[in-house]
Amino acid sequence: MDKNSPFLNKVIWITGASSGIGEALSYEFSKRGAFLILSSRSESKLLEVKKNLPLNKDKAKVLPLDLEQLNELVKKVEKALSFFGKIDFFISNAGVAVKDFALNTPLEIDVKLMNINYFSSILISKALLPHFIKRNAGHIVVTSSLSGKYGVPKIASYAASKHALHGFYETLRSEIVNYNIFLSIIIPGIIKTEITAHALTGSGNKFGKIDKTFQTAYPVDKAATKIADAVMKRKESAFIGGSEGVTLFLNRLSPWLLRRFIRNHPLKKMRQLKRAIGLN
Ligand SMILES: NC(=O)c1ccc[n+]([C@@H]2O[C@H](COP(=O)([O-])OP(=O)(O)OC[C@H]3O[C@@H](n4cnc5c(N)ncnc54)[C@H](OP(=O)(O)O)[C@@H]3O)[C@@H](O)[C@H]2O)c1
Question: What is the Å distance from ligand 1's center to 155 Cα?
Fold first, then answer.
């Protein structure tokens, strides 16, 4: 381990630590010497992650929580603070996707997605901010998505929740600038996790399958290393992923053109676009 790691003995609270990006981040920050608080709903999976941490595994704490239960979250923040007496980094990473047309998605699912992906995140951040302000230190890291920047079919409520994160945290950043509190918004591209299998359809059931594109997507451990590097550099925003990042550029350059590409078959069009500009 690097003795000069900026994460050495820092307390990092990660939500969504039981799988995918959050699990990979847990291993990455552990490698870099941090003390971890691991959260998600599944206590058994979190205990498994804790067992596999490369460093400080005996010090790591498991804090099961359901982000949909907004009324419980302030108590969870108090519990998280009680473990080490401080929190240095809050990684708001847990999230659920949707996989259905907006018209097939009842409002309950829209609300569920907003609660898990957006309201829980801002609620925990607000509860932590007095602690950060008192210590004149703290860093909030938010996992957004390309869907926080533009929309593609069948993920309307997911995209809405991710857009909301940008609105809230970009504003918050401007309010906390004098308190030595940092805020990083991470924009993963397509990362190889089981997010599509865990995604909800309009019926409320899980989609249950890993999309083809995700089976060969950007490796999650590599994504975690890049995210940790971006946090270390206190990047305000960082795209993490493969050549799909070109869509961010296109969205700025010509949103009209991007919309034309993604209108019907976004992934097919994206592959066509990448071929056309020589990316594969
Ligand atoms: N993979 C990608 O390509 C990609 C792209 C862009 C953005 N992202 C974002 O990255 C983040 C992590 O996604 P992932 O790809 O790692 O997906 P994942 O493997 O499905 O992980 C999602 C995590 O969120 C937790 N979670 C879900 N519902 C929860 C709830 N109600 N309360 C507490 N925890 C909950 C899950 O744990 P439990 O089931 O144990 O609760 C799991 O640990 C998400 O915010 C996602 O939107 C991913």
Answer: 15
- Pocket, ligand 1, Cβ cutoff 6 A: 15-16, 18-22, 40-42, 45, 65-68, 93-96, 116, 143, 145, 188, 190-191, 193-195, 198
Q: CATH number for 11-241: choose from 3.40.50.720, 1.10.1750.10, 3.40.50.150, 3.50.50.60.
A: 3.40.50.720
User: How far does residue 238's CA lie from ligand 1's centre (Å)?
Assistant: 18
Is 158 marked active-site? yes
CB atoms closer than 10 angstroms to residue 227: 26
- Could you identify the atom of ligand 1 that is nearest to the CA of residue 97? 47
Output the CA–CA distances (angstroms, integers) from residue 246 to 162, 251, 254, 271, in the order listed.
19, 9, 12, 11
pLDDT tens sequence across 104-131: 999 999 999 999 999 999 999 999 999 9
Instruction: Determine the residue type at 156.
Output: A
- Number of other CB atoms surrounding residue 169 within 10 Å: 21
Which pLDDT band holds residue 260 (cuts at 50, 70, 90)? confident
| The model's pTM | 0.95
Averaged pLDDT for residues 248-270: 82
Sequence ranges of the domains in the chain: 11-241, 243-280
Average pLDDT, rounded, for the chain: 95
